[in-house]
Design a protein that fits this description.
Blueprint: E1 4-6, H1 10-21, E2 26-28, E3 35-39, H2 43-53, E4 62-64, H3 80-89, E5 94-99, H4 106-109, E6 114-118, H5 123-132, E7 136-137, H6 152-159, E8 165-167, E9 179-182, E10 189-192, H7 198-205, E11 209-210, E12 239-244, H8 247-256, E13 262-266, E14 278-280, H9 287-303, E15 308-312, H10 320-330, E16 335-337
Parallel strand pairs: 1-8, 2-8, 4-6, 5-9, 10-11, 12-15, 12-16, 13-14, 13-15
Antiparallel strand pairs: 2-3, 3-7, 4-7, 5-6, 9-10
Bound molecules: threonylcarbamoyladenylate (TXA) and magnesium ion.
């Protein structure tokens, strides 16, 4: 299949919308990461997303719309707390899971009776949804198991020949996937941390539960709240080991292990003290920049031929919880306490 690379002119947005209307697949920019979009109401188009990504058949997709009004036909009811969070955080990087209506094909939800919905804030994503007039199912636009794409080039690297088009909207501001919260329990449950933090959510709707799988590997025999939790994620070719310790302990350990192929995935301040090639992902106390840079940093380790990467453990506060969650998965939960 030929993959068109489109820009964000009105004419190209129309082309993207036409491809979606006729059942095709288009990678689109959002404020979090690029998404691989298809008409959420077209079961065959949705199936093709799973094929293009090599995605497991039981890992459901997020449906993207431009306003809360467009959600009504997709769910059986909208809980009051959804309105409260929508008022504060939509459009934006928050995904809410509700009971699905019959309109949503089982292909989107992988047979589950709930559907994940997000109202993105990115102008290009919104224009494409509006021009197509469709709810768009879209997982991250990467090959499953790899690192989520934060630039059009990442999508081109992963999906050329597998999708109809890629819309180049520059790099994604947030850089990590949306916060995912299950809203059909009496106490809502955080399933994936993101830019909208637990503290921000609790300031609007009160106490929420936090799923154990956010910071821990899933235990054998335990059914995950979100199917995505059980799959390998963000795994670069290089082996990643996270080092937990202060500046000095981190730099000393890396310098003592400065063999061929060893790289540091570190904070900006660490680089001058290290004797190995460094890929920096933001300043020590700047979790938002760490979030924005992490996925590009993970991809560039492989491009530079890193074999073993010692990563600096970020703080798990605020947006940092999302950074730690993604880095733990990239490292397959390998952490050394210094
Ligand atoms: O920021 C984002 O969320 C991006 C952009 C494109 O919107 N999308 C994204 O999609 O990250 P994906 O497919 O990579 O992650 C969706 C996650 C998966 O872990 C999936 O298992 C979970 O949401 N999920 C989707 N529907 C669900 C449901 N009904 N119940 C529980 N988990 C669900
Ligand atoms: Mg993904």
């Amino acid at each position: 299949m030929e993959t068109k690379v489109l820009n964000t002119t009105a004419q190209h947005i129309d082309t993207a919308a036409e491809i979606l209307k006729s059942g095709g697949l288009v990678a689109i920019p959002t404020e979090t990461v690029y998404g691989l979009a298809a008409n959420a109401l077209n079961a065959q188009a949705v199936k093709n997303i799973f094929v293009a990504k090599g995605r497991a058949q039981d890992n459901p997709l997020i449906v993207h719309v431009t306003s809360i009004d467009e959600i009504k036909p997709l769910v059986t009811e909208i809980p009051e707390k959804v309105y409260m969070l929508a008022e504060k955080f939509w459009p934006g990087p928050l995904t809410m899971i509700m009971k699905k209506s019959d309109l949503v094909p089982g292909e989107v939800t992988c047979g589950m009776d709930t559907v994940a919905i997000r109202v993105p804030s990115h102008k290009v994503a919104r224009d494409i949804i509006s021009r197509s007039g469709l709810p768009l199912a879209a997982p991250s636009a990467n090959i499953s198991g790899g690192v989520s794409p934060t630039t059009a080039q990442h999508c081109i690297d992963d999906l050329t020949g597998r999708v109809d088009a890629i819309v180049d909207g520059g790099s994604c501001d947030v850089g990590l996937e949306s916060t995912v919260i299950l809203m059909c329990n009496p106490t809502p449950r955080l399933l994936r941390p993101g830019f909208i933090t637990k503290e921000q959510i609790e300031s609007v709707i009160g106490k929420i539960d936090v799923d154990d799988a956010i910071l821990n590997p899933l235990k054998d025999g335990v059914k995950p709240s979100s199917p995505g939790m059980k799959y390998k994620h963000y795994s670069p070719n290089a082996k990643v080991v996270i080092l937990e310790g202060d500046d000095k302990a981190y730099c000393d350990y890396v310098n003592q292990h400065a063999d061929e192929g060893v790289f540091a995935l570190c904070f900006d301040e660490d680089a001058k003290q290290l004797k190995v090639p460094c890929i920096c992902y933001g300043e020590h106390k700047d979790e938002k920049t760490q979030a924005a840079k992490l996925f590009s940093a993970l991809r560039s380790m492989d491009e530079k031929g890193a074999k073993l990467v010692f990563a600096r453990m970020p703080k798990a506060d605020g947006v940092g919880l999302a950074v730690v969650n993604r880095l733990l998965r990239a490292a397959a939960f390998q952490v050394i306490n210094l």
